[in-house]
Automatic annotation (TrEMBL):
Residues 643-741 form the HTH araC/xylS-type domain. This is HTH araC/xylS-type domain-containing protein. Keywords: DNA-binding, Membrane, Transcription, Transcription regulation, Transmembrane, Transmembrane helix. The chain crosses the membrane at residues 23-49, 293-315.
Length: 744
């Protein structure tokens, strides 16, 4: 008999090598090795660290409380120094009446300190003993109203705070309490605040209360995992406990820091320099459960190993099966791979499929790019009526399908340039967003960029298709997220044959855009509004006052017309035409006086970036005032009488100012001053006083907490009707309308 021992042994080794080099075996062995390493590491960690877990937990809680104490003590010290710094800037006032201008300055100082969010201040209250007045960041009122209406608390009332003047301490932290606003409907805005009183021994009639957000500083400063946290003072009086803490009876703490066990509860404590004691309570069962968890972990580990083995086997089978099917499908090609791998399947897949896929992908990408480029040029040519040598027929343009052209005009705001983002790049991103939304509904649509600020989408459907309107609303909603940086004007025009007519119709519809900085969808054809111009009398008034440098009257006239334009909701094109009309008159006036007007060139460019009436008012005001200043400087380079009047009004506009008062200060007669002021400035003295006061009032009205009556008094109007009349004459709006427009 022939000897088959050697051939059988060699065959066995060959089969074993084939089996162990397969993808399935390699994957499964790799999973087993990883599982074994992880199990070994976990078992070693459990055995090595189990004995010291409890000590580590106690050490962790001790260190965590120490860090929490340091955070609290540092914060209290910083609040003390910051609030004391405010008191050092106060001037003691014996007069019981309140100076509202000084009050506004003090409120600004309070807000400046509170702008430091690291102090966690909800408010700072300044207490006046002589006047019984309380001032905070946004309002001032008597002490009873402040603590009954705005800071209502069952623990602290107005009498309690009035009693603090007589107490000798200079700094005191009071227990936290719940404060809320209270009115006839009940309590609103409940919050837990920790009052801190700071006194300045040089100002016994004043003290400040820092209202600290107790729950917020706990959430930010505590370094413990459990939320059983307490603060007590030197008299063992509760000062604060965390929101999740239970009401417990705390033991006496003999030492400066440490921990003690009572009734199976760990009390970690540490006393701070402020006299406060910080306590962290951890039940013993919490610590013990963390230690016992290591023993039960063995069972969990066994279960995890079993699940890991099963998952490894199933995953290996799932990965190996499709690979085997691919191999069976491509092995008939019998090509030799350029490199060898320990995994047979990867050798075959890599060298049999990668070249085919790469070649196919390159061809497909090249054809797709060329086809997209050809379609873009074809549509651009037909939309703009660009002729070429081969005629106008092209297979890319369907001749029997209805279509809708959706035009997007992009306008960018100043915020985009602060991000240092290029307009061209931003437009590319917007085009991709638009294309993604449109393709979801209209898969055969085409979106491309026609101009630097113009995007065009071609949708093959009827203009009456309701999905058009739905898609445009989706795009509008998308642009809401980018309203801080840009906005769009969107139009849709349809047809079936003449592409250029539809495109020109869309361009005309873009001109119907209303004057604002929000994304607009224009789908209705409206009659173009006529050019907005001044009447003959108004134009003569405009030219006369421009020539005399009377910017106050010019601005009043321009703002009245702008108010009328805004009310009628004119298009952007009409508004810009009116603004150009004013700028051209201003330029002509400067030319007549041989004054350099080159600065107006930049103004015409900036006008195209004006998208709101506020921006337009700012631009025109700047140009008109600068033009008037140049005229006045030409008339009188440095008139000391006029300069004195300007400076005095800027610093004393809230006082009673008349021609007689100003004449006495200048040691001239009333009639001479009136004539002189009119001749030099082109303005009546009373009109100029009113213009200064109205400009100051507009700034005050931007603060919603200041009443219109108070704003009128602050700028010198004792009669509210007179204030309303002068305000509307100057701005075209009543004070209420002005505030409402600015808040929108």
């Amino acid at each position: 008999m022939p000897n088959h021992k050697f051939p059988l042994k060699a065959l066995f080794k060959l089969r074993l090598k084939e089996k162990t080099s397969s993808l399935f075996i390699r994957l499964f062995l790799s999973f087993l090795i990883i599982i074994a390493l992880l199990v070994s590491f976990i078992l070693f960690s459990v055995v090595y660290y189990r004995g010291g877990i409890k000590d580590e937990i106690i050490k962790y809680n001790t260190l965590s409380l120490q860090k929490t104490t340091e955070n609290y003590e540092n914060l209290i010290a910083v609040i003390h120094s910051s609030v004391l710094a405010i008191s050092l800037e106060l001037e003691e006032v014996q007069n019981p009446s309140i100076n509202y201008l000084n009050a506004l300055s003090t409120m600004q100082k309070l807000r400046l300190v509170m702008s430091n969010r690291q102090l966690y201040l909800e408010n700072i209250l300044l207490m006046y003993q002589n006047s019984g007045y309380t001032l905070e960041k946004s309002r001032g009122t008597d002490v009873n109203t402040m603590f009954d209406r705005y800071y209502n608390s069952k623990d602290y009332n107005a009498s309690f705070w009035n009693d603090q003047y007589a107490l000798p301490y200079k700094f005191q932290v009071f227990p936290a309490s719940s404060f809320a606003e209270s009115d006839s409907t009940g309590r609103m805005g409940e919050r837990t605040l920790l009052p801190i009183v700071v006194k300045n021994e040089q100002l016994p009639n004043f003290y400040l209360i820092a209202m600290v957000e107790a729950d917020t500083i706990y959430a930010q400063l505590h370094q413990t995992l459990d939320d059983q946290f307490y603060i007590i003072n030197e008299a063992d009086q509760p000062m604060y406990h965390s929101p999740g803490a239970n009401q417990v009876s705390l033991p006496k703490f003999k030492y400066h820091s440490g921990y003690m066990i009572k009734d199976n509860i760990y009390y970690f404590y540490k006393k701070g320099a402020s006299g406060l004691t910080y306590i962290h309570v951890v039940p013993d069962n919490t610590i013990s459960s963390q230690v016992r968890w290591n023993f039960s972990f063995v069972l969990l580990l066994i279960l995890t190993i079993a699940i890991s083995l099963i998952a490894s086997f199933l995953l290996s089978v799932r990965l190996n099966t499709p690979v085997k099917r691919i191999i069976e499908g491509i092995q008939k090609w019998n090509s030799h791979p350029p490199w060898e791998s320990g995994i047979n399947e990867f050798n075959i897949i890599h060298h049999k499929i990668s070249d085919i896929l790469k070649t196919n992908q390159d061809m497909h990408q090249d054809m797709s790019e060329k086809e997209s480029l050809l379609r873009y040029y074809a549509y651009s040519n037909v939309l703009k009526k660009i002729r070429h040598q081969q005629g106008d027929s092209t297979p890319w343009l369907p001749s029997d399908r209805p279509f809708v052209l959706v035009l997007f005009k992009v306008n960018y705001k100043a915020n985009l340039y602060r991000l240092e983002v290029d307009e061209e790049r931003a437009t590319v991103f917007i085009r991709e967003y638009i294309n993604r939304i449109i393709v979801e509904t209209f898969s055969d649509s085409l979106t491309f960029q026609m101009e630097n600020d113009q995007i065009l989408s071609i949708i093959f459907t009827e203009i009456t298709d309701p999905n058009i309107n739905h898609t445009l609303k989706q795009i509008n909603h998308m642009m809401e997220a980018e309203r801080e940086y840009c906005f769009l004007t969107i139009t849709a025009s349809g047809g079936s044959e003449d592409w250029n007519d539809a495109y020109q119709s869309g361009l005309e519809q873009l001109k119907k855009r209303k004057f604002d900085d929000e994304t607009q969808i224009i789908v209705e054809t409206e009659l173009q509004a006529a050019d907005i111009r001044l009447t003959q009398a108004q134009e003569e008034e405009l030219d006369a006052n421009l020539y005399n440098g009377n910017d106050v009257v010019v601005l009043q006239l321009v703002r009245r017309v702008l108010a009328r334009i805004r009310k009628s909701n004119e298009s952007t094109q009409s508004v810009h035409q009116f603004a150009e009309y004013i700028l051209l008159h201003t330029q002509r006036n400067l030319q007549q006086r041989n004054i350099d007007h080159t600065f107006l060139r930049q103004t015409f460019t900036e006008l195209q970036n004006c998208h709101t009436y506020e921006q337009l008012d700012t631009l025109l005001s700047s140009v008109i005032k600068r033009s008037a200043l140049l005229v006045r400087e030409l008339k009188d380079k440095r008139d000391h009488i006029i300069h004195y009047v300007y400076e005095y009004l800027e610093n004393n506009y809230e006082k009673d100012i008349t021609l007689d008062i100003m004449a006495d200060k200048l040691h001239i007669t009333r009639s001479y001053l009136s004539t002189y002021f009119k001749e030099k400035t082109g303005n009546n003295f009373v009109d100029y006083v009113n213009s200064v006061r109205i400009d100051k009032a507009k700034k005050l009205l931007l603060n919603p907490d200041i009443r219109i009556q108070d704003a009128a008094q602050f700028v010198g109007y004792q009669n509210i009707n007179s204030f309303n009349r002068m305000f509307k004459k100057s701005t075209g709006f009543t004070p209420s309308e002005f505030r409402r427009n600015e808040q929108q």
